[in-house]
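User: I'm putting together a small comparison set for a docking exercise, and I want a reference complex before I start. The sequence is below, and the ligand is manganese (II) ion. Could you produce the 3D structure with the ligand included, as structure tokens?
Assistant: Of course. I'll restate your input first, then give the structure tokens for the complex.
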Amino acid sequence: MKIAVMPGDGVGQEVVPAGLNVLKQVAKKFSFTFSTDHYPFGAEHYLKTGQTLPDSVLKELAAHDAILFGAVGADPRGSAKIPQGILETEILLKMRFELDQFINLRPTRLLPGVPTPLKNATPDDINMVIVRENTEGLYCGNGGFLYKDTPHEVANQIEVTTRRGVERCIRFAFEHARQTSRKKVTLVAKTNVLRFAHNLWQRAFEQIKAEFPGIQTDYHHVDACTMYMVTNPKIYDVIVTTNMFGDIITDLGAAIQGGMGMAASANLNPTRQAASMFEPVHGSAPDIAGKNIANPIATFLSVAMMLDFLGQPQAASAINQACREVVADPKNHTRDLGGTATTSQVTDAVVAQIESAAPRN
Ligand code: NAD
Ligand code: IPM
Ligand code: MN
């Protein structure tokens, strides 16, 4: 297994090394080997060299089995020396687009013992997976300014929706539902206003659902969806949605599953023609970076998703199980979960749990 490792900025520098410790432990336990190549891209490298992510490196990355990514991004309150969004678009989005990672798979699951802001919600109520389209929509960078900095300024940002892009995403969502024994797929969009782009989504959804007769389907407008995710999250099983809406509702999903420190994701190229990328949903969290207090669980769960994708399901489930056991005990909760545990303590606890667990069949 050849893994490209890119911790990036802020807490990425803390949670990715922690994730590698967990990976080492399962590799030992399940007798597989892996090698890593480390990449320095992010804010510091940009300030030093002016480089974000060179094309030559992209080719190299593509040839790995997977990429383990942390986060990139300067403080959103502004950094004089780093143009807004340059690291995010030229590093993270460039990998998603150029490596054709057209699925962003984001499970939203409340684990037992983890505090949720939703009153009375239990792990049975919050157990969904959000399939976010990852190479189109408002993220294409299709737009521009006219008459910039004049009173007549025009700014366009065009949502790109292709039949192929939508169909492959929706089909993935149904196939994923079937493979993981989930019962329902809900399309989340805004067909009442976006009467072209989201009309295409709806027609494609209607067409593809006929190929999966055993799976129930539903449709919600995105605004209503944000409400139901808070008032009745149990109704969601698999959600399939656009790039922009998926971005927004997966942060909401993270909040109800205990916070950004709990939310994992996989940027998949299901054709396997280029590497897929695995990363926590959260960003560089400049407010808590460098203090050894970031919650590393989201990264561990992302490493588990990576191992699942790379054909090591036992190692993946050992990590998932160890995370479950560890977060069930409040003494292992980091500050975001209301506790005082450090990043290193949680990491040690997960490693020890993997070590001591009996191998499961
Ligand atoms: P963020 O996810 O970095 O932080 C949001 C909140 O969640 C903060 O309060 C933070 O302290 C908390 N948080 C995040 N990760 C945590 C963890 N592991 N443990 C405990 N608490 C955690 O989002 P933001 O503040 O909007 O963005 C910060 C920077 O990161 C921006 O530059 C943004 O563009 C970038 N960003 C990058 C990615 C990525 O690379 N995948 C994702 C989101 C944001
Ligand atoms: C995410 C992030 C990214 C996105 C940003 C950093 C480009 O918010 O992975 O959710 O919008 O997709
Ligand atoms: Mn996001």
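The chain is about 40% helix and 20% strand. The first helix runs from residue 12 to 29.
User: Thanks, that's exactly what I needed.
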